[in-house]
Amino acid sequence: MQPVRLPREDSTSRDPKSGVLVRQVTSAPAIHHHPFFFVPAYDRAERFLFFVSHRGGRPQIMAEDRAAGELLCLTDRDDIAEWSVHPSPDGGRVYFTAGSAAWMVDTATGAEERLADFGAAEMREKGMVGAAMGTTALSASGDWWAVPVRTGARTRFHLIDTRKGTSEVFLERDTIGHPQFCPDDDDLILYAGPLTDRVWVTDRSGARNRRVHEREDPLQWVTHETWIPGRKAIMFVDWARGLRRIDLASGAVDWLSRFPAWHAITDATGRRVVCDTNFPDIGMHLLDLAGAPDAGADFLAWSHASSAGFHWAGPFPYNDGPVAVYAPQHTHAHPRFSPSGRHVVFTSDRDGHAQVYEITLEPETAAS
Predict the structure, then answer these.
(1) DSSP class of residue 366?
(2) Contact 95, 145 (CB under 8 A)
(3) Is the pTM of this model over 0.85?
(4) Per-residue tens of pLDDT for the chain, all 368 residues
(5) Which is the CATH superfamily of the domain at 4-314+332-367?
(6) What does the domain layout of the chain look like in residue ranges?
(7) Distance, CA of 102 to CA of 35 (rounded, Å)
(8) What phi, psi does 330 have (nearest 5°)?
């Protein structure tokens, strides 16, 4: 199908505490959200802002044409795994899983192409969090797409060559969640193993699969791991004590911040972090990684997202096995920088329906 163009529906306001400009991008009475917080919501040139919309009753891939201000409906399907969506670096393609297959949609033409068929696979684990979300990873070059596929009691890690359209299984294990290619190395993939043994890295062959951090004690809650650009290092949330860093070469682990960040990710330079907070929600904040761990954080804006998931209010709940939790991800803010660092995208259900919002940072803040 050709992309369907809809008129712009944005509006602007100022955060009452910080004064930053907040633009509400979507307003239709339905669920909307940008991709997961470690997945790009923009192409590198920031021509498009990609998001998922349920305005037709089912999740579809949409984009804001930022120059025209119009909204583009890119898909019309009944089987999209909404957290699998991953735009290409140039914005020309969006990759996603639907049914038991891997797909690509062309942003300009709306043409879809099936890149892999996984057969009779469940695709995802049951639940709302972690591996159950079905997130996927695209390399910085756009040449490689890594897709975990749940098949019976195991998960197979499929590697798709996006140029040739070929696919192969390069790793198989008990669970594989939240995959992320290293932004500086197309041959390194970070992923989450079991919730009690979380931080793993592999190469594209699967031969160098290894744990890079082991929990320090049974109460340590390791979560929301991401790459730090510009260095072979991984940042993770030590909930709710702060942010830690793993040096991949040495294995050394140090503190970046004692601020209780929840979902946290750096900008493209690896120098700043944007995060949301929970229990208590004290708003979204910016952190300078050059500062001391106890330097605190600068308030950015209120998300007013409901942030469902009461399990976050207590101690680590998974030591005795999986726990069913109610944590719909579209209720979480999941803030993320744009490639230029001038904007922060987030999701909020503050008005009853989850909508996509964008903060514009002042020049001195964006450049800091």
Answers:
(1) H
(2) yes
(3) yes
(4) 799 999 999 999 999 999 999 999 999 999 999 999 999 999 999 999 999 999 999 999 999 999 999 999 999 999 999 999 999 999 999 999 999 999 999 999 999 999 999 998 898 999 999 999 999 999 999 999 999 999 999 999 999 999 999 999 999 999 999 999 999 999 999 999 999 999 999 999 999 999 999 999 999 999 999 999 998 999 999 999 999 999 999 999 999 999 999 999 999 999 999 999 999 999 999 999 999 999 999 999 999 999 999 999 999 999 998 899 999 999 999 999 999 999 999 999 999 999 999 999 987 566 55
(5) YVTN repeat-like/Quinoprotein amine dehydrogenase (2.130.10.10)
(6) 4-314+332-367
(7) 17
(8) -70, -5
